[in-house]
TrEMBL record:
Pfam family, one: LRR_8
Biological process (GO), any one: defense response
Domain NB-ARC: 5-95
Record lineage: Eukaryota, Viridiplantae, Streptophyta, Embryophyta, Tracheophyta
Alphabetically ordered keywords of this record: Plant defense, Repeat
Transmembrane segments: none
InterPro entries the record matches: Apaf_helical (IPR042197), Disease_R_plants (IPR044974), Leu-rich_rpt (IPR001611), LRR_dom_sf (IPR032675), NB-ARC (IPR002182), P-loop_NTPase (IPR027417), WH-like_DNA-bd_sf (IPR036388), WHD_DRP (IPR058922)
Protein name, as recorded: NB-ARC domain-containing protein
Domain Disease resistance protein winged helix, first and last residues per copy: 181-249
Species per Swiss-Prot/TrEMBL record: Eruca vesicaria subsp. sativa (Garden rocket)
Length: 346
C-alpha cells in the first residue's frame, strides 16, 4: 500500500514513527490556519529532542494560534536594498544603455515600495527596455494605474489576493476594499474610517453605538494582523495601506479589472475638474479627494449605484442644486476642508 492510499491517521502514524527517532527541522510555508502537529504526525519540538518547526505566514493571528516562541517579522526592503535587487534583476546592460535610464529606473524601483515580489516582476519586465521612452512610460503607468503594468495582474496581484481571500467574511472584505479610496501613503483616521463603514451599512447599527465602534476597531485590528493595513504612529490613531496592496484592492473593486468604472479613485493627482466617465450608472464609489477642483461639473448623469463620494480637501466654491438629485443612494459625502465652500443647496 502506497502512502497515497493510506488514510490520514495511518499516514500521520507513519510520519511520527520516522520522525520520533530523529532530530529534524520542518518548514511549513505560507500557512493560513493553525496546523495541529499531532494530527499530521509531527512530534512536538522541545529543547530535549532538538527538533525545530518553522513556518511562514502573512497572518499574525496564525502566529498567535500556533504559539510561536520567537516570531520574526519580515518587513519590506529598505530603499537601498530594494534598489540593489532591482538593479540585479534589470541588469547592467539595460541600465547602461542610456545615461538617463538609471534615474528613471530609481523612480520605477521606488514605485515597488520595497515589496520583493513587485521588485522582481517589474524588474524582469524592464530588463529588455533600453529606450528612455519605454522607461518614462513605465513611470507614468505605475503612477496612474499600476494594475495596467505588464506582469502585475498575472504575477503580483493574484499572489497578494490570497490575503484578501482568507479574510473572514464579506463584511471584513468590504471594509478592507473601502480603504483603497484614499490616496497613496495617506494616514487614515481610524474613527472616521469606522464612521464611513457604518454609513455604508458594513457594520450593523442594531447594537449600541459603542458596540458598533468596537466592532469597527476589531475589524481594523484584523486587517492589521493580516498585514493588509499598517499602523504608523505611536498613538495608533491612524492606519495606512501599502501602495501595492492598495492597487490590489482597487483591482478587486473593479471586478479584477473588468469594470474599472465601478470604483473610480483619482485622489491626490492634481485634478482641476471631475474626470470623464463613460457609464455613470455603474459607479459605486468615487474618490476625488485632495485635488484642486473648484466646481462640480460633469456629475449630472444618473448615478443610481453611487454610495460614496469623497470630495474633501479640494478648492470647491459652490455646488449646484441639481447635484444631489442624481445620486439617490448616496450615503457618504465628504466635503470637509473645502475652505471656500460656504453654502450648500437646500
Amino acid at each position: 500500500m502506497t502512502l497515497g492510499e493510506k488514510d490520514e491517521n495511518q499516514r500521520a502514524l507513519d510520519i511520527y514513527n520516522v520522525l520520533r527517532r530523529r532530530r529534524f527541522a520542518l518548514l511549513l510555508d505560507d500557512i493560513w490556519e493553525k496546523v495541529d502537529l499531532k494530527v499530521i504526525g509531527v512530534p512536538y519540538p522541545t529543547r530535549d529532542n532538538g527538533c525545530k518547526v518553522a513556518f511562514t505566514t502573512r497572518s499574525r493571528d496564525v502566529c498567535g494560534r500556533m504559539g510561536v516562541d520567537d516570531p520574526m517579522e519580515v518587513s519590506c526592503l529598505q530603499p537601498e536594498e530594494s534598489w540593489d535587487l532591482f538593479q540585479r534583476t534589470v541588469g547592467e546592460n539595460t541600465l547602461r544603455s542610456h545615461p538617463d535610464i538609471p534615474e528613471l529606473a530609481r523612480k520605477v524601483a521606488r514605485k515597488c515600495r520595497g515589496l520583493p515580489l513587485a521588485v522582481n516582476v517589474i524588474g524582469e519586465t524592464m530588463a529588455s527596455k533600453r529606450t528612455v521612452h519605454e522607461w518614462c512610460h513605465a513611470v507614468e503607468v505605475l503612477t496612474s494605474s499600476a494594475t495596467e503594468f505588464s506582469g502585475m495582474e498575472d504575477e503580483v496581484l493574484p499572489v497578494l489576493k490570497y490575503s484578501y481571500d482568507n479574510l473572514s467574511g464579506e463584511m471584513v472584505r468590504s471594509c478592507f476594499l473601502y480603504c483603497s479610496l484614499f490616496p497613496e501613503d495617506y494616514h487614515i483616521d481610524k474613527e472616521r474610517l469606522v464612521e464611513y463603514w457604518i454609513c455604508e451599512g458594513f457594520l450593523s447599527e442594531k447594537e449600541s453605538r459603542e458596540k458598533t465602534l468596537n466592532q469597527g476597531y476589531e475589524i481594523i485590528g484584523t486587517l492589521v494582523r493580516a498585514c493588509l493595513l499598517m499602523e504608523e504612529r505611536k498613538d495608533k490613531t491612524d492606519v495606512k495601506m501599502h501602495d501595492v496592496v492598495r492597487e490590489m484592492a482597487l483591482w478587486i473593486s473593479s471586478d479584477l479589472g473588468n469594470e474599472k468604472e465601478r470604483c473610480i479613485v483619482r485622489a491626490r493627482v492634481g485634478l482641476h475638474e471631475v474626470p470623464q466617465v463613460k457609464n455613470w450608472n455603474i459607479v459605486r464609489k468615487m474618490s476625488l479627494m485632495n485635488n484642486e477642483i473648484e466646481d462640480i461639473v460633469g456629475i449630472s448623469h444618473a448615478c443610481d449605484e453611487l454610495t460614496t463620494l469623497f470630495l474633501q480637501k479640494n478648492e470647491l466654491v459652490k455646488i449646484s442644486g441639481e447635484f444631489f438629485r442624481c445620486m439617490p443612494h448616496l450615503v457618504v459625502l465628504d466635503l470637509s476642508e473645502n475652505h471656500s465652500l460656504e453654502n450648500l443647496p437646500e
